[in-house]
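Narrative of activities, Objective 1.

The group set out to show that a structural description can be obtained from nothing but a protein's sequence at a throughput compatible with the screening campaign. Below is one input-output pair from the validation batch, recorded exactly as produced.
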Amino acid sequence: MATETPTAPSKKADKKLAKDALKSAKRAEKAARKLAKAACCTGTSKECGADACEDKCGDKCGGMPKFKHVAKKKESSGKGASAAEIGQQLVALMNAGKSVEAEATLYHKNVETVECDGTRVESMKGVREVGAWWHANMEVHSCVARGPFVSQTGFAVHMQISVTPKGGARMDMHEVCFYRVSKGKIVRAEFLSPAHGVAAF
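Output recorded for this entry:
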């Protein structure tokens, strides 16, 4: 009785098997990445810290989903120290009683400041002029800076200042100051006062 000799698989069949195996491996890798990302962003992964999550997910844990009407390019303060770094330096200097040093080292030479009444002061020359008037007419007892509260382009700080105006009574002032940062320097500072002079702090 004759028996058939099994034929070796053709080269074409080998290529198809290899291609299918590669596709399966890629699908499995993609699924694994998706699961790791989901575990990371939902906080169910023990190996995923906040930094790792930010790297893998492109956003912080619990961040917003991708919306339809969002610009492709994100806002940024550009090269140089970040808004967070500048904010931390400013808060540290203010709490150390070094407001003049904070302005001299962190402000851009063409900085613009806006007081709560709408007065605009331009350049460091203007900032120094206002600062000289302030220190000549106010006895500053304490200044507490809280923050910074940061974004990619700037930061905000809550200031509580205890002062005695010349010939007046001691009082506590509250301000929220918003600083715009570009290329490692503060280019705009806007000072916000509580509505009707009442601070809810």
